[in-house]
Design goal:
With about 425 residues, the chain is an alpha/beta fold. It is about 30% helix and about 25% strand. The strands form five sheets. Strands 4-3-5-6-7-8-9-14-13 form a nine-stranded mixed β-sheet, sandwiched between helices. A four-stranded mixed β-sheet has the order 19-18-17-20, covered by helices on one side. Strands 10-11-12 form a three-stranded antiparallel β-sheet, with no helix packed on it. A hairpin with a 5-residue loop joins strand 8 and strand 9. The radius of gyration is 22 Å and the shape is globular.
């Protein structure tokens, strides 16, 4: 509990103490210095590198991390043993918890944390989402496709009522269960929050948090209109807690626990983050390239936070369409569809071949409106000097436990 309280108090203290970008950079410099000199040399992967300067270290990605997992963690867990532990064929190593990502892109990743680091994570999370805790408790419904020791730790915290709802059991099963539980706080993928809204749920939560998927403006409008509560995003992945939206709805990166660098995405205003977590000592997460596409906000947030503000999580690098030798970002494609007609409130767009796109619309969308969407896509692509064959398919747009990706590249170049 010392680790939990320390993380909670530190997070709240930094939220009031770090007032400028210079303050943030000084704080990060001190944390990174400790990481480089004391923590990284304990991992086998970095013992052959000069760890005096962060910029001198290699940028790694999930493929490299998973190819030799044991060299990146101090628990000595190999990739093969990690999967054995995760799948229950080997016991968890005492003092550690091992989990895995949901594998949205078909490339699952492992992570390992110590018991103390779980308490650290919980302290940071609660400080950013429930800053009045423990003076003000919460009754939380957590809806995700995968439970983990991190969430079970939160469920045992005094003052918190937390119940996990397994998305794999199906929306038709969990929606009435959530209503019966009557939470005042819901943390769920936007598709679940939208399903509750469209089901005319009688719930009246005080707090709504969207996580695990991109929060599309299409979903935000429906959710907030029904519940009368602003949806706040939680940007979290296997790699850790990356961002939490403030009370004004702006997503701020967690620069009190991570250093962020950004790689530009050619031909767009989007960037991909390269993260360095300076709080983790069990698994190295240093200069790790994320697969996400972010649009950073050019304006400071009204809340006054000096942490970098994100205007939009636009999707994943996996979902950049590759057409005629050019890349097209998901936001351009999405806007072409929804701008065609206001009655389009849901869709799926998939690249299925080198110059082949399939547009999937609800069965109740008329052919005239569907034609407008296709024309809008063709014009947008033509303006980029791209020709593609767009096929229309109409069917019920179902919701499953799989992460919702409205714009998805299925074809692999």
């Amino acid at each position: 509990m010392i680790r939990f309280l320390s993380a909670f108090i530190r997070t709240r203290w930094l939220a009031t103490t770090l007032k400028t970008r210079a303050d943030v950079e000084r704080w990060q410099a001190s944390r990174l210095k400790r990481l480089l000199r004391k923590t990284l040399p304990t991992f086998r992967f970095y013992q052959s590198y000069d760890t005096d300067r962060l910029e001198a270290l290699p940028i790694i990605d999930k493929t490299q991390l998973m190819s030799d997992f044991a060299t990146f963690n101090s628990a000595g867990i190999s990739t093969a043993d990690g999967w054995e532990i995760f799948e229950g064929r080997m016991p968890q190593k005492r003092g550690y918890s091992l989990g895995a990502s949901t594998g949205t892109s078909g490339n699952r990743g492992l992570y390992v944390v110590s018991d103390a680091e779980r308490q650290e994570w919980l302290g940071v999370m609660l400080a950013k989402t429930l800053p009045r805790f423990p003076l003000e408790g919460a009754r939380i419904a957590l809806v995700l496709p995968l439970n983990s020791a991190l969430y079970r730790t939160a469920a045992r915290m005094a003052g918190l009522g937390l119940r996990f709802f397994d998305l794999n059991t199906g929306l038709h099963t969990i929606l009435p269960q959530i209503v019966d539980y009557a939470p005042d706080t819901i943390i769920a993928p936007p598709k679940v929050l939208r399903a509750l809204a469209e089901d005319l749920s009688p719930l009246r939560p005080r707090r709504l948090f969207s996580g695990a998927e991109v929060l599309d403006p299409l979903d935000r409008i429906v959710i907030e209109s029904h519940f009368g509560v602003d949806v706040r995003e939680i940007y979290m992945a296997t790699e850790g807690l990356l961002g939490v939206a403030c009370a004004h709805g702006t997503l701020h990166l967690c620069e009190d626990v991570m250093h962020f660098a950004f790689e530009a995405v050619t031909g767009s205003e989007l960037v991909s983050p390269v993260i360095t977590d300076f709080t983790r000592t069990t698994q190295a997460m240093c200069r790790y390239r994320m697969n996400d596409l972010l649009r950073l906000s050019p304006h400071p947030c009204r809340c006054g936070s000096p942490y970098v503000a994100v205007a939009e999580i636009a999707g994943r690098c996996d979902d950049l369409f590759v057409l005629g030798g050019k890349t097209v970002t998901p936001d351009i494609l999405r806007n072409a569809v929804v701008d065609a007609d206001r009655s389009i409130t849901d869709f799926r767009l998939q690249q299925t071949g080198p110059a082949d796109i399939e547009l999937i619309l609800s069965a109740d969308i008329g052919l005239e409106i569907a034609g407008k969407a296709i024309t809008s896509l063709e014009r947008r692509l033509s303006g980029l000097g791209i020709a593609a064959a767009i096929q229309l398919r109409q069917e019920p747009l179902s919701t499953s436990a799989r992460k919702l990706r409205r714009v998805e590249r299925i074809w692999v170049p």
